Amino acid sequence: MKRLLEAELIYGRLLDISEPHLIARYNKALEGFGLRSTALTQFSIDMTGFSPEIAEELGDRDYLDPNRVNRRFIIMTPEQAELPVVHTSFSNTAALMHEFFNANSRAINAITIKDALYGEIEDSVSVVNDIDDLLSINEVRFRVLSAEDMLGKAAELRGLVDRLKKVPTAWADDEMLTRMVELAKQTGDIRQNALVPDQLVFHHEAFWANHFGGVYVFLDDKTTTVICDPSVPGFRRSRPWQVSYIAINDHARIYDFLASTKRLQLPQASWVEDSGLYQHRADMVVRGLINESDPTADLANADRIWLQTWMHRYAAAVAKDGAYPFLQEMIRTVAATGTIRMQDVAPANRFMLVRAAPTHPDQWLVNRLISQLVPRDFVSRFVFDKQGFYDAYERYSETFKEYVVATLTGTYLKDKAAFRHKLYGLREE
Q1: 114-161 pLDDT, tens per residue?
Q2: Is the CB of residue 329 less than 8 Å from the CB of residue 322?
Q3: Is residue 188 classed as helix, strand or coil in its secondary structure?
């Protein structure tokens, strides 16, 4: 992973923590979770407070994700709202954290001046043993504590203020008044500073979970659709009266489901030609074929003439694989007719021709699924399914790893938003 780290393709855009008072607060949060304090004097964190350096120190990448459910978080600063989530078991963790930050921004801004928030995103289950456990998660509750007990002190002060207002003799209680002054010195004026989060319960939307090798859960008005390996415990047995199950290798049914629920943007010249998505995937196919035939091939320095020469020399292998000539034919078809008759396309090839509907709320989740079904497109895999990308990257040859890193840094990292908009039609929120 050294290349990925140096290129900031893994653990990029994290927030450095080095101030002693912040490290002390982080340690109190760790102790609150029953974990040992860190001895590090500098580390980085993501939106949830996860630190790759502390994970390595503790020897536990799941130190904030026990049982891979009921995710823990540590909030040191409001700035974390702008950070990525680099390690999670649920694809919607970032969305839930964003909702929490947005709904409670006043409290977070006030508390983190003197304290750190920590706690758990509590689901309705504590351990995931089968699909039914995943389907039981309809909403989550943020259980929030504070490292310096600022929340507890604010609550205590609020109670004393209420007593002062309601009990006529309270003004004569010198001990209570002294305690109020002590608390106010720490919390400030709680009438002006909202120190208690306003919203703690959030709805659990469609998601991907990394349990059992990966499970996709899509929610519609009256139905729930699960897409995963059919060997997963509970497949077709958990709530069969209200859940539709699709095997991850059943391309025809997956396509029909996504298309019928308007989660796909089907081929039209208006977006296909402007995006360059088909040519991009054709290039990914050719380079994948080259790597499969010769893992030592220097693709980083391969120009168009070299690629054309290789394809002519190995025309039989290219034709046997079929993906590259298929995409070239589809490019010509769109240019000539403006569209493609998807019913005439083999189910296994359809996902090379579509992308998630950019206006659908599940666009990121759908693009993640598509990138899994078009594995040679490592760029799309990196954009939408980083864990899947990292797993595949580990199996690449050293030469191909070098090429992959050069490609991602030379394209996607230059302008992520523009790249996502061009290829996938995504607009930033």
Answers
A1: 889 999 998 888 899 999 999 999 889 888 888 777 776 766 776 777
A2: no
A3: coil
